[in-house]
Amino acid sequence: MATPSRSCGQINALRSFYDYLERFSLLTDPEGRPLPDPMRRIPCPTAPQATNDWLRPNEDHALQACPGTLAERFPIMLLRWSGIRAGEACALTLADLDLTPGHETLTIQTSKAGQDNAPSRSSPSSCRCSRNGSAIFNNAA
Prior knowledge:
Elements: H1 4-23, H2 57-65, H3 70-82, H4 86-90, E1 97-98, E2 105-107, E3 135-138
Antiparallel strand pairs: 1-2, 2-3
C-alpha cells in the first residue's frame, strides 16, 4: 500500500505531465479540441507532518568529543552552532568570512528559496541571523 507522501508524489508527477500536455496543446480529443486537465480534480492525500529529529544530549556530547582533524570537525561544528543548512555551508567561500577584530562575520550568499531563518541553536557567542548576503553569524555583541 502506498503511503500518503508517495501517493502525493505520484499525483504531482502526473500533474506535471498533464501541465506539459496542456501547455503544448497536446491534451485534445480525437477531433483536436482542447480537453480539461483531469489532474485538477484529484487532490493529494494529506501526509502527517514529519517530526524533527534532534540530537539527544548524549549524542550531542559524543559528536563534539569525536576525534578527527580540524577539516573533519569544523563543518560539523559550523552546522551545529550557526544553524545554516548543509547546502549553504557547501557554497561558502573564504570571501564570505570576515575576521575583522570585533566584527567577525560569516555571510551566506545563497539560501533555500530565499528564506530568512534564524539558527535553531544559539552559540556561545552572540548570533545575529539572516541570509542572502547579510551576516548570519556575528561574534560581535
